[in-house]
Design goal:
Layout: H1 12-21, H2 28-38, E1 43-46, H3 53-67, E2 77-80, H4 84-97, E3 105-108, H5 114-121, E4 127-130, H6 132-140, E5 151-154, H7 157-162, H8 166-173, E6 181-185, H9 192-201, E7 206-209, E8 220-227, H10 230-240, E9 259-263, H11 267-279, E10 284-287, H12 293-304, E11 310-313, E12 326-331, H13 338-345, E13 355-362, H14 366-376, E14 381-382, H15 420-424, H16 435-443
Parallel strand pairs: 1-6, 1-7, 2-4, 2-5, 3-4, 5-6, 8-13, 8-14, 9-11, 9-12, 10-11, 12-13
Length: 444
């Protein structure tokens, strides 16, 4: 099958897998990164969510492994990720891209029994995807040898830093061979700590940046609905979810029509909203950080499999979890900051597919909405639903300018240090006095 990947001179088995996945043209980051990475150069990269970054760094690794396949030393490639969810996601992409090869891979993450992971390692995987904590634990127990690693990827380095994993990552890298290809990715290149860490592990890296962490791809439509109260906000949500509502007289639409991810800020809010949606005829599921890894994986599988089309989630799903074909992201609760908004939006419109982000905004959240627009430098369209128009107008918040104070502090004169001889003459006239004048001063 001819497509834009043919020009990258990839192995025929990889091209076959790419064709099966339906990829026709490389994304921007894939076009920029692949030629450099296939040449063996170190990479420091940044790209927004859904840009195809994972495929971009996996293809050069798989290409290199296929060229040297047959050596018994393993693992050859190590991919470090901050979360279990991202680890599972990357492993699935590895399996899809290597489907027509004999390359083997495994994932080492918390929440999975060690005996099972030891069994996976016994299969001699060429590629290991791991979280730093679990990998260090297995290295300390001598259950894994990383002396033959030729390819290293540090994914979401900024999040590694936020979660306090950087020292663990540095310790792991210290066990690897000096001769290797290293690729590091971060949502932003503005953090000096990330750059310092990158400089310590990369050798004359090529910098690949696509968009910024503030970018919402043009394929994603951004809308918002102003709401007067919590009850009004729920009515707006029900209107948006009407195609998925079931009743004795109406059957919910086919799940294939699309999936909706509804974000709230807390576990309590997620549970409350999920119960209320169920009571209103919306079949939905719930996902939050307090659930076990097994429970979360099961719910994601149900969502992927089309058993349910609506998922209520906290921000545990904003980064790391991979969802296929999400048509709409609804911010039922506005995110606490603009960066979280960008991460939530990245759950839809992946790989340049169309998607929608709809935010339900209470009066006091209008300031957050306007901050998001300034952060992304993109306008969010205000929409209304007939019969549910807001009564209140959107408040306007002007950015406060720092006023210059009218008070001018006094200028303190510099004190000149005098010589000791000058100190002895303190209080004496600085000019010579005549005899008559001295007598007058003496008598006065």
């Amino acid at each position: 099958m001819d497509n834009g990947f043919d020009d990258l001179f990839l192995d025929a088995r990889l091209l076959r897998a790419i064709g099966k996945l339906g990829f026709k043209e490389p994304t921007e980051i894939q076009s920029q990164l692949l030629p450099e990475a296939v040449s063996g150069l170190d990479i420091i990269g940044s790209a927004p969510t859904g840009s195809g970054k994972t495929v971009a760094y996996l293809l050069p690794i798989l290409q290199g492994l296929l060229a040297t396949h047959g050596k018994k030393l393993w693992p050859k490639a190590l991919i470090l990720v901050p979360t279990r969810e991202l680890g599972n996601q990357v492993r699935k992409v590895v399996e899809s891209l290597s489907e027509f090869t004999s390359l083997n891979s495994t994932v080492l993450i918390g929440g999975v029994h060690e005996s099972l992971q030891q069994k996976w390692l016994a299969e001699n995987p060429e590629i290991v995807v791991a979280t730093p904590g679990r990998l260090l634990d297995m290295l300390e127990k001598n259950e894994l040898d990383v002396l033959n690693v030729e390819y290293l990827v540090v994914d979401e380095a900024d999040r590694m830093l936020d979660m306090g994993f950087i020292m663990d990552v540095a310790g792991i890298i210290g066990m690897l061979p000096a001769e290797r290809q290293t690729m590091l990715f971060s949502a932003t290149m503005e953090n000096p700590q990330v750059l310092d860490f990158a400089n310590s592990i990369l050798d004359e890296p090529v910098r690949v940046e696509v968009g910024t962490a503030r970018t919402i791809p043009p394929s994603i439509t951004q809308t918002c609905y102003l709401s007067d109260s919590a009850e009004h906000k729920f009515e707006l949500l029900m209107s948006l979810l009407k195609p998925f509502q079931s009743s004795p007289y109406h059957k919910a639409s086919d799940p294939e029509e699309g999936k909706v991810l509804v974000f709230v800020n807390t576990r309590v809010d997620a549970e409350s909203l999920s119960e209320r949606l169920h009571a209103s005829g919306i079949a939905c599921d719930l996902l939050h950080g307090d659930m076990s890894q097994k429970a979360r994986n099961q719910k994601v599988r149900h969502f992927h499999g089309g058993r349910l089309s609506v998922l209520v989630a906290t921000d545990v799903a904003a980064r790391g979890l991979h969802f296929d074909a999400i048509d709409t992201v609804i911010n039922y609760d506005m995110p606490r900051n603009a960066e979280i908004y960008v991460h939530r939006a990245g759950r839809t419109g992946r790989a340049s597919q169309p998607g929608t982000v709809a935010s339900l905004v209470l009066d006091y959240e209008a300031k957050t909405l306007q901050r998001i627009e300034r952060f992304t430098k993109q306008l969010i369209e205000r929409l209304q639903i007939e019969g549910l128009e807001p009564k209140n107008r959107e408040p306007e918040f002007k950015r406060k300018k720092k006023k210059k104070s009218g008070f001018t502090p006094p200028v303190k004169k510099a004190r000149v240090k005098k010589r000791l001889r000058a100190q002895k003459d303190k209080g004496k006239p600085k000019f010579p006095l005549g005899k008559k004048k001295r007598q007058e001063m003496k008598n006065s």
